Inverse folding.
C-alpha cells in the first residue's frame, strides 16, 4: 500500500503540466507579435494577385529602402524625404507599370508604417493598429489596388519604376497569384518584369 503513494502524488503534477501547455503556446505567439524576422535591408517583399479585373499589390519593405532611415521623421529634412517617397509611391502607374491594352487604373493606395504618422503618409484616416514597439527597425507596408478594364490583356507588371525611384532596393521577392500562374519571382534592378502568365 505504502509503495503506491508516491506515484499517486504524481498525477496532479501531470495534469498541471498538460493544462499549462495551451497557455505556454499562447505566450510564445505573443512574444513573436510585431517582429519582422525577414527584415533585411535592401530587400523588399511584394505580393501580386489578380482576381477578376482587380490587380492588388502588397509591398512590405524595410523603411530604410524607401527613405534611408527607420526612425520617426522629426526633422524638416526627414519629413521632406518621406513626402518625396510618398509622392513616388502614390504614382502607382509609374511604380507598377502594366500593359497599356489592359487599361489598368489605380483605385486605391494605402501606406502604413509604425514610425510615421498617417498624415505624413498621405492617409486621411489613422492606422488601425497601435504603433509597434520600436526595436530600431521599421517597415513600410503599401497596398496598391488597380482595376483593369481588360485584365485578359495583362501580361506583365514592370517594377523598374520602383527600383529607379528607390535605389535602396537591391532585390524584391515577389509572390504571385493569378488565375493562370502561381509562384515566386525575384526582381533586381535591371530585371524587374513580373510575368503574369
Ligand atoms: Zn531595419
Amino acid at each position: 500500500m505504502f509503495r503506491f503513494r508516491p506515484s499517486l502524488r504524481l498525477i496532479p503534477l501531470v495534469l498541471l503540466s498538460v493544462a499549462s501547455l495551451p497557455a505556454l503556446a499562447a505566450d510564445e505567439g505573443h512574444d513573436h507579435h510585431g517582429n519582422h524576422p525577414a527584415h533585411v535591408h535592401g530587400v523588399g517583399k511584394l505580393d501580386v494577385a489578380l482576381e477578376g479585373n482587380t490587380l492588388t499589390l502588397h509591398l512590405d519593405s524595410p523603411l530604410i529602402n524607401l527613405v534611408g532611415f527607420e526612425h520617426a521623421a522629426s526633422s524638416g529634412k526627414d519629413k521632406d524625404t518621406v513626402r518625396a517617397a510618398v509622392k513616388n509611391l502614390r504614382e502607382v502607374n509609374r511604380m507598377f507599370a502594366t500593359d497599356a491594352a489592359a487599361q489598368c487604373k489605380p483605385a486605391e493606395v494605402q501606406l502604413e508604417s509604425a514610425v510615421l504618422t498617417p498624415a505624413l503618409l498621405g492617409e486621411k484616416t489613422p492606422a488601425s493598429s497601435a504603433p509597434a514597439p520600436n526595436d530600431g527597425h521599421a517597415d513600410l507596408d503599401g497596398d496598391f489596388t488597380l482595376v483593369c478594364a481588360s485584365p485578359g490583356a495583362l501580361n506583365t507588371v514592370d517594377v523598374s519604376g520602383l527600383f529607379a525611384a528607390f535605389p535602396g532596393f537591391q532585390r524584391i521577392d515577389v509572390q504571385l497569384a493569378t488565375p493562370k500562374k502561381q509562384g515566386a519571382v525575384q526582381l533586381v534592378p535591371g530585371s524587374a518584369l513580373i510575368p503574369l502568365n
Confidence is low (pLDDT under 50) at residues 1-36.
